[in-house]
Amino acid sequence: MNNKQRALNLIGLSQRAGQLISGEALVLQAVRSKKAKAVCLASNASENTRKQFLNKCEHYDIPVVTEFSREELSHALGKDRTVCALLDKGFVHSLQKLL
Fold it and tell me: Gene3D superfamilies from the entry (predicted)?
């Protein structure tokens, strides 16, 4: 198993642990309230979505991971998603070590 697959497994694990939220509106809310510790944005997200999240995360100084496609994120989360946010620093640290 390569590191990318391990990272996707970690994202799925964080969701099952209740330390991940997904969906554009919820993630934006988490970024604004600074609950999000990192944001995973699909590499093939629409131009408007990419711009919106990259600008918001830069403004609030939240790291953005763009290593995964929409299909990979959706598969890891079990639902069709373009963006998700990790809420726990431990998961973020583990994810950064893998990428």
Answer: 3.30.1330.30
